[in-house]
Design a protein that fits this description.
By secondary structure, this protein is an alpha+beta fold. It contains 17 helices and 22 strands. The strands form 6 sheets. It has an 8-stranded antiparallel sheet. Strands 4-3-9-14-13 form a 5-stranded antiparallel sheet, with no helix packed on it. Helix 5 packs across helix 6 (310-325) and helix 9 packs across helix 10 (451-464). It is globular and about 75 Å long.
Length: 672
Amino acid sequence: MKLRAPSVPLITVDPYFSVWSAADKLTDRPTSHWTDRYTSFSRADWAREASRPNSMLGLVTVDGKTYRFMGASDHEAIEQTGLDIDALNTVYTFETDEIKVTAAFMTPMLPTELDVLTRPVSYLKLSAVSKDGKKHDVSYEVSVSEELCLNVAGQSPVVKSDVQIKGVSACMKMGNSVQNVLNRSGDDVRIDWGYLYLAVVGAGASVSDTKVTYARDFRFNKKEPDKKPESAELESLTAKAEGDALIMFAYDDIDSVTYFGAKLKSWWNKDGMTIEMAIEKAASSYDKLAKKCREFSDKLYIDACKAGGEQYADIVSLAYRQVFAAHKVAVDTEGQLLFISKECFSNGCAATVDVSYPSIPMFLHYNPEFVKGMMRPIFKYAATDEWEFDFAPHDAGQYPLVEGQVYGKNRETGKQQHHMQMPVEECGNMLVMAAAVCVAQGNTSFVRDHIEILETWAQYLIRFGQDPEHQLCTDDFAGHLAHNCNLSLKAIMGLAGLAIIFKMLGKKRKSESYYKKAKEMADIWVKTAANGDGSFRLAFDRPGTYSMKYNAVWDKLFGTKIFAPEVMQSEVQSNFARMNPYGMPLDNRAQYTKSDWLVWTATMLESDDDFRRYIEPLWKAYHYSPSRVPLTDWYDTATSLMVGFQHRTVQGGLFIKLMEKDFSEKCKKIWG
C-alpha cells in the first residue's frame, strides 16, 4: 500500500495480545501495545509518559557482525529498505552490502476459518538472500519481554519453563508468578495472567531464559544529543536460529471472558485443545496458511479498489486486523459463538451496542456469524431482571468481564441512571443489526427467538424517535443533545429494519405497518430538518446547523426508499463545501470527525468519483497524522491529530462501501 501507516501491526490477536510499531522504521522506537500513545512532533514529555511498551528485539548477525532489525537497543540498526502492509501481513525488508533480509509478520485472521482465526498464535518468518553472489553466515535472535504478560514491567516476578512440542525446534513459556485469571477489567490495562510462549522452527534453533536491555526511546537523542537513552533490563525469552527461521508468538489466557457468572473458553480451545497442540498445529500449517493469507489479502485489496479506489483499498486493508483484534471470540455454555468487543480507549466497555453497530459492515461482508456473536450478550442481558427499561442496553460489561451494563451505572447504588442511557440510539442499532443479519444470511432463524423484544424496542422508537428528547447518542463525547436529526434517522431506519424482518418472516401486515410508520416519520423529518438550501440540520430547533447524516445510509443499502433520492443526495453534496483538509467535520459544533461515519456518509453518494473525493481527506489524515497510533476513528479535520480514540472495532464500518453491492442485491430480492 502507498498509505504510511500511523502504527504498524505486528502481532494482532486480541485486545491483550497485541504488538505494534509506532514508527516508519521497525528500529526507530520500542515496539508497543496498542494502548501506546505517541505523537511524533511535539509534546514529547507527554508521549514519553504515556508510552505502553510491549518490548521485542530482533537481531541479525551477518558473517559475525550483528545488526538490530526490530525494537530499540544499543545495537547498530540495519538499513530498512521496504515495508509492505496488507490485510493479514506486514513485511519488512532490510539490507547490508552483502544480504537482503525479510521479516514477515502474519496473523492468519481468516474470517471463515474459526479454528485458525481464534488460535492465539502469530508468526514471524525470517529469511535472507545474498546480494553479492557469495555465501554468508546468517543467524537471528528474537527476544520478547515480560511486558507481554504483565500489566507493567516489574509488576511481579515471572516464571519461565521449557516446553516440548512436536514439530517445533524449541519453545519456552513465561508468565506472572501469581496467576489470578480474569482478575480485573478496565481500559488502559494489559493482561497479567496466562502465559506467553515463544517457539522457533529452524536449523540450530533454541529458546533461552534471558535478561535483555531494551532502550526506551531514541527520540530524546534529537532533542538532547548528549543524553543517553533510558533503558530497562527485562526478563525475556530469546529464540535463536542459524539461517532462515519461523518464529511463533503464542498466548494462553487460560480463560477468555467471564459471562454472567461463568468463565468461558475461546473457540480454539472449547473442545480441550491445549496451547501446545495449537502451536504444533500452527507450525505444521504455516505454508498453507501463508498462501491463504496472501490470497485473501490480495482479493480484499482488489475488491476494495473496484468498490472505492486505491486509497479506499489502503484504508480498509490497514483496518482489517485491528478490527478483529479489538474483539475476543468466546463460546457460551450453550456452545454459541460470542464476539466480545472491547471499547478501546473509550471506557473499556464490553459488547457495546453503539460500537458493534458501526463495525458490522466488515462482518456482514465476510462472516455474519460474528454480528450474531455481538448481539447475543445484549439479548441475554436485556432479558434479565436487572435490566428494567423498555429500551435496549448500551453494553453488557467491562472487558473482559461480561456481567451486565456498566455505562451509566451509579457506583454507590448499583442502579442504572436514566439520564446516562442512549435509548433511541441502542434500540435503532439493535433493529438495524438484526435486519442486516437476516439479509446477509438470507434467513430469519437468528431473530425468531428475539422478535418480542425487537418489537418492544420498535414501539419505543415510535413513541420517542420522531423528535428525540435531551439524550446521548453514539457520539456521546459531543455531549447530550435534544431534537437530534441524525438520531431521528436512526429511529426511522430501525423501524424500516423491522419491516424487512417481518417481510422475510412472511408477515405482510406487520411489515407494511412498520414500513408505513417509518415513511410517515421520514416525511415529517424532511420538512422539520430542512435548512432550506438542500442541507439538513444538526437539531430540529437549530436552523443553519449541519451534521453528517450517516444513519440514512441504510435506506440506500436496504433499498427501502424511505427518502426520495434527491433528499440525501443534496444533503451529502452540501458537505463538500464544509470540508477541512482532513475531512468533513462530524457536525458544526467542532472540527473533529469520525472515520466510520465519514465513510458511511460518502457511501450515500451516487457517483464513484464523489465517493473517492469524499474519502481522500481521510486517507491523507492517516498518511500524515503525527499521532502514531493504531487507526483512530476520532480525529481533528484541521490538524489530523487524534482527539481521543484508537484501535477501535468501529473501523469495521469502513468496509461499508465494499459490502454495498452484494448486500444491496440481496435486499432487492427480498423486496421482489
